[in-house]
Amino acid sequence: MINKIKNIIIKKNLDGYIVPKNDKFFTEYSKISNLELVSNFSGSAGFAIILKNKNYLFVDGRYTIQAKKQSGGKFKIFEIPLIWPRNIFKSSKNKLNIGFDPKLFTYSSLRHYFYNTCKLSPVNEDLFHTANSKKLNIHKFYKLDKKIVGESSKSKINRVIKILNKKKIDYLFVSAGENVCWLMNIRGKDLPNSPIANCNLILTKNREIYFFSDLNKISEIKKKFINQKISFYEEGKLFEILRSIKPGIFCIDGKTCSVFNEEIIKSRFIIKEKNDFIYYLKSIKNKTEIKNMMKAHIEDGVALTKFLYWIKNLKKINLTEQQVEKKLENYRKQNKNYLYPSFDTIAGSGANGAIIHYRSNKKSNRKLNRNDLLLLDSGGQYKWGTTDVTRTICFSEVSKKIKELFTRVLKGHIAVAQSDIKKDQTGHNVDKKARQNLNNIGLDYRHGTGHGVGFFLNVHEGPQSISKNNYIKLEEGMIVSNEPGYYLENRFGIRIENLVFIKKFRNKLFFENLTFAPIDKELIVEKMLTRNEKNYLFNYHLETYSKIAPFLNKKQKKWLAGLI
Fold first, then answer.
1. Residues 98-115 pLDDT 10s
2. Better-scored residue on pLDDT, 423 or 125
3. CA distances from 117 to 8, 10, 93, 258, 395 (A)
């Protein structure tokens, strides 16, 4: 693929070409990765720039080790946000002419990457069509019952219309499939681990909907919208529809509306805003969604607790990472409401645990060693919601240093869990608490402390998060992860993750745990914990027992009770 791209560079008189991870729907996890075809890098985020004589790969801190291993032979690796292409090219005497596919980039991403340091030239040629021509299975879209989601699509549309009228906007172009799914209460299976339907729509202030998707997928949902003003069109018909509707004011999504589509809209309409406010509406979960997420997490907690009992009580550790993944998946499959993983399970033993978003393959599939730590990050999509949980496990006595590091991560985890959200307000402020105990000895970790989570949607959701650069106000009903960690390259990884939601009680806002599964007490230096932290851990395991024990056998119950 690199040679093919270099031929295009020469043919089009370019200096380089940029290759993103995403497809035209801008989802984090897609069935196709153009970036992997070019670089062998399999992570969920990043992009490459192919020049005539150099190849650059840009990834964030979660993936630097992985990128070096997978792509380091042919690509120079840069960590974002520390270094962007704009930092590399700003010193060039002449602006480089960089080509890009306008259907795979937004104006905001290009500005962020290059910031006027290069000439950017659209290349209307699908370089990856042949490579990606394998026919994918067609999964029908389906509609969720109000009992599951707690609010009808009509009600959600009315809320959006109110905002459009307030902002004096005539049309909202919803280009993010996850936002369409939320608005219309539909789901699909166009992504490997998420019930996202690849589609987009135009909503008018008069409640008319123009829905764009693969028409082979909509036969079921069409029946559900017969009483609404909705018309269905094949993908790629946006231009035709825009020619047929009255001129007016548009709101688009700067994160997922491609350069190609934005130019089509701009040709006839005024774009007033580039902020799809559905992201915010979606981030506030209603009471039904929270209730169902709780249900899903109990079911998931049972599976994980059974697994942890099994692996902690093995007399001989004779397992590979992939065998671990399969065993945990089998425990989840015992639940009839379990559908599939919410992301590819991370079972990183020893040195592989230090690769933050590690994914085992035939080559890397390591055999567990009794002296290793095992970092296990996994989750499931259930009929009731989405889960994501990480536990770090030991199988023998480990060094004092490792125990101390684990305990510092745990202290950060507890500090987040006990946050006063009215006082802290933003994820930026909460993030500081998570890192403090590591920062005190000059250590840190290269990822956010927590990401937003969707309701039976994406396991990663914005705008809410707990991270250094997130200043979004945390509000009642938001769900985020709480997952501080520490990673020592070529040695081990430590991470403790629960999902939490923001609850209001007597005018106070605080995090309430959704995740219930035991934390490995063999890794804790108890004397490093304050009385308050010890009480938190005691109460957490007590609540875990009360919720999970009814679904366990006698031996499993006894083991779990021993952790209280």
1. 999 999 999 999 999 998
2. 423
3. 21, 21, 10, 21, 52
Which parts of 396-478 are beta strand (E)?
Answer: 450-452, 461-466
Residue 91 has pLDDT above 90, yes or no: no
Residue 454 sits in the same domain as residue 381:
yes
pLDDT per residue over 231-246, tens digit each? 999 998 999 999 999 9
The bridge status of strand 209-213 relative to strand 200-204 is: antiparallel
Length of the chain: 564
Q: What is the pLDDT of residues 43-64, one digit of tens each?
A: 888 999 999 989 999 998 889 9
Q: How many CA atoms lie within 13 A of 359 on its CB side?
A: 11
CA–chain centroid gap for 92, Å, is 35
Residue 104, in any domain of the structure: yes
Cα–Cα distance, 410 to 405 (Å, whole number): 9
410 in the same domain as 331: yes
Residue 75: partners with Cβ closer than 8 Å, 6 or more residues away: 39, 41, 48, 55, 56, 57, 67
pLDDT the model gives residue 419: 97
Quick one: 273 and 317 in the same domain? Answer: no
Look up residue 473 and give its DSSP letter: B
| Residue 486, helix vs strand vs coil | strand
